[in-house]
């Protein structure tokens, strides 16, 4: 099996020292940057928008994995592509024409991701899974960093892995929310390919070492 992809979420970084934290991720064993875009409508919080993504893109030397927690994401697909985003993930719950949205993301040269809230069944992806590059399984309710991991996620990941295999799809499973040293290995054992970690990385004493630790734990 391939090594687990570690994607630190900059939401938990020090925004007053963003360049420093980006350099830390550049130098670390992390694989992707995870960017959380929140609109204060789909989720009860506002994070950051285009000017900040543009600033991050200038310094980041690893793929930008961008998680849109916004209503009507179709409006901004082209803009994020122009900003240099590599993966664009939209929420299942706000996409009435999900298949069309996935095609639009790919047409802009990005990998297409679909995020599902804790209450959203993986069965709803049955008809689109072959068109999805990444399924982002929310293991907390989206909107804030630092929340506790929802235990039901393990079963969900296992079911999703079965669906992917059954459909012969080439889809990565990404877990987002409350990921830490205590649940990382178990998540990978259930089928996770990508682990997002915000607070666990950036609130630790030595974020570089914490990333390394997550990587080694999930070998
Ligand atoms: C939550 C975001 C997450 C968040 C994870 O809505 O999607 O990416 O940054 O933060 P932690 O790892 O602290 O739960
Ligand atoms: Zn996220």
Strand order of the largest sheet: 1-8-7-6-5-4-3-2
- Report the structural category: alpha/beta
**CATH topology description:** TIM Barrel
By DSSP (H or I, 4+ residues per run), the number of helices equals 8
Mean pLDDT: 98
Proportion of residues in extended strands: 15-25%
Unreliable stretches: none
Structure description:
- Catalyzes the reversible epimerization of D-ribulose 5-phosphate to D-xylulose 5-phosphate.
- A divalent metal cation binds at residues 34, 36, 67, 176.
- Keywords: Carbohydrate metabolism, Cobalt, Isomerase, Manganese, Metal-binding, Zinc.
- It catalyses: D-ribulose 5-phosphate = D-xylulose 5-phosphate.
- Pfam families: Ribul_P_3_epim (PF00834).
- The chain has a single domain, classed as Alpha-Beta Barrel (TIM Barrel).
- An 8-stranded parallel beta sheet has the order 1-8-7-6-5-4-3-2.
- Helices cover 33% and strands 19% of the residues.
- The protein is an alpha/beta fold and 219 residues long.
- It is built from 8 helices and 8 strands.
- The protein is globular.
- It has helices at 18-27, 50-59, 77-83, 98-107, 153-166, 184-190, 199-202, 207-217, and strands spanning 5-8, 33-38, 64-69, 87-91, 111-116, 134-138, 172-176, 194-197.
- The model has no long low-confidence stretch (mean pLDDT 98).
- The longest helix has 14 residues, at 153-166.
- The site of D-xylitol-5-phosphate has 22 residues, from β2, β8 and α7.
């Amino acid at each position: 099996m391939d090594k687990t992809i570690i994607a630190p979420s900059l939401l938990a970084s020090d925004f007053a020292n963003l360049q420093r934290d980006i350099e830390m991720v550049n130098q670390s064993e992390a694989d992707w940057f995870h960017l959380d875009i929140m609109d204060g409508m789909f989720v009860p919080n506002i994070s950051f928008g285009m000017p900040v993504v543009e600033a991050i893109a200038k310094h980041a030397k690893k793929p930008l994995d961008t998680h849109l927690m916004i209503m009507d994401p179709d409006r901004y697909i082209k803009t994020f592509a122009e900003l240099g985003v590599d993966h664009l993930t939209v929420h299942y719950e706000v996409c009435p024409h999900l298949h069309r949205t996935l095609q639009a993301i790919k047409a802009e040269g990005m990998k297409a991701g679909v995020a599902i809230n804790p209450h959203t069944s993986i069965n709803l992806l049955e008809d689109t899974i072959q068109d999805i590059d990444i399924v982002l399984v929310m293991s907390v309710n989206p909107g804030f960093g630092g929340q506790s991991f929802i235990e039901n996620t393990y079963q969900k990941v296992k079911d999703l892995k079965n669906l992917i295999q059954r459909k012969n799809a080439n889809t990565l499973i990404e877990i987002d929310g409350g990921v830490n040293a205590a649940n990382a290995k178990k998540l990978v054992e259930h089928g996770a390919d990508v682990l997002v970690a915000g607070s666990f990385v950036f609130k630790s004493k030595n974020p570089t070492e914490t990333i390394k630790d997550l990587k080694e734990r999930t070998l």
